[in-house]
């Protein structure tokens, strides 16, 4: 059966979430859904979700953590694998580009609507959650890596060396997202060598797994930056990583607080 990968959002405003009624002409039209849509091959699900929310609702969004493990449901048109994330919208004047109606309500109030079946386990999960206290952290901190076939070993599990690369992938994206793109930094002659890395493996992953990496600043002093990486797969912890860095120019160690004060202040906003 055809697999359809979908990213959907639990969009939060106080203790309410947003539901949309699928408009005519779409599969399952008339039923209610969490806004979202298909993930393109190889795409980061958070990127897909931001695109879909912009298309459907006409708003930018901040995507937070996963709500629950991937929901799998079989329809006559294929097997839907739906990844669900908390989100906040930056614009509150919403468009109805894909829905006949949008409705805000608590999960309890909305439970009586005629939902697409794959959304039901999400509503059940939300009944246990205090939505008003969900933190949607800075999206720069989140990166999802989908395990490639070539990253697995003879036992079919991800080789341990890959986790160090995934740490780097999340780090370069983090620096770009906070305005300190590595490429641009190097053009100014500044480089940031890795002083040490540390990985504590908790559980194995395998081909196709979505590894969510949350990056935090564990320690920052005048010359040294320590980043932490919490890797989870479907909500289970798979690896805890750490990397230490310094910043140099022309072979000279830089004082981050004095010579890169803006970077220092920005990094201080992402404590572990
Ligand atoms: N967005 C969303 N999709 C859901 C939910 N529950 C559920 O079964 N689905 C299914 C319906 C669809 O088969 C699939 C989503 O694909 P889609 O057709 O909406 O994706 P799209 O917006 O990218 O595409 P399209 O309608 O423009 O063709 O996931 C839900 O709560 N939200």
From TrEMBL:
Cofactor(s) the protein needs: Mg(2+)
Gene3D superfamilies tied to this protein: Hotdog Thioesterase (3.10.129.10), Nucleoside Triphosphate Pyrophosphohydrolase (3.90.79.10)
Enzyme class label: hydrolase
Superkingdom field: Bacteria
Entries under NCBIfam families matching the protein: YbgC/FadM family acyl-CoA thioesterase
GO-annotated molecular function: hydrolase activity
Annotated Nudix hydrolase domain residues: 1-129
Family under the similarity heading: Belongs to the Nudix hydrolase family.
Provenance organism: Limosilactobacillus alvi
Keywords in alphabetical order: DNA damage, DNA repair, DNA replication, Hydrolase, Magnesium, Metal-binding, Mutator protein
InterPro entries in the cross-refs: HotDog_dom_sf (IPR029069), MutT-like (IPR047127), NUDIX_hydrolase-like_dom_sf (IPR015797), NUDIX_hydrolase_dom (IPR000086), YbgC/YbaW (IPR006684)
Protein name, as recorded: 8-oxo-dGTP diphosphatase
Biological classification of the source: Bacteria, Bacillati, Bacillota, Bacilli, Lactobacillales
């Amino acid at each position: 059966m055809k697999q359809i990968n979908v990213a959907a959002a639990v969009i939060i405003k106080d203790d309410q979430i947003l539901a949309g009624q699928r408009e005519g002409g779409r599969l399952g039209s008339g039923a209610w859904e969490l806004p979202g849509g298909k993930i393109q091959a190889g795409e980061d699900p958070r990127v897909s979700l931001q695109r879909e929310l912009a298309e459907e609702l006409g708003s930018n969004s901040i995507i937070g953590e996963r709500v629950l493990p991937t929901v799998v449901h079989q329809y006559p048109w294929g097997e839907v694998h739906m990844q669900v994330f908390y989100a906040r919208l930056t614009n509150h004047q919403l468009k109805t580009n894909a829905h006949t109606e949008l409705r805000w309500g608590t999960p309890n109030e909305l439970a009586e609507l005629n939902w697409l079946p794959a959304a039901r386990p999400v509503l059940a999960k939300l009944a246990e959650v205090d939505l008003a206290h969900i933190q949607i952290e800075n999206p720069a901190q989140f990166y999802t890596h989908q395990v490639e076939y070539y990253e697995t070993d003879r036992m079919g599990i991800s080789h341990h060396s890959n986790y160090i690369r995934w740490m780097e992938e999340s780090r370069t994206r983090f620096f770009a997202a906070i305005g300190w793109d590595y490429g641009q930094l190097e053009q100014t002659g500044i480089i940031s060598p890795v002083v040490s890395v540390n990985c504590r493996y908790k559980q194995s992953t395998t081909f196709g797994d979505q590894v969510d990496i949350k990056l935090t600043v564990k320690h920052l002093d005048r010359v040294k930056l320590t980043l932490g990486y919490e890797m989870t797969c479907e909500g289970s912890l798979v690896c805890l990583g750490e990397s230490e860095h310094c910043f140099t120019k022309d072979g000279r160690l830089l004082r981050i607080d004095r010579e890169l004060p803006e970077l220092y202040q920005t990094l201080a906003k992402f404590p572990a």
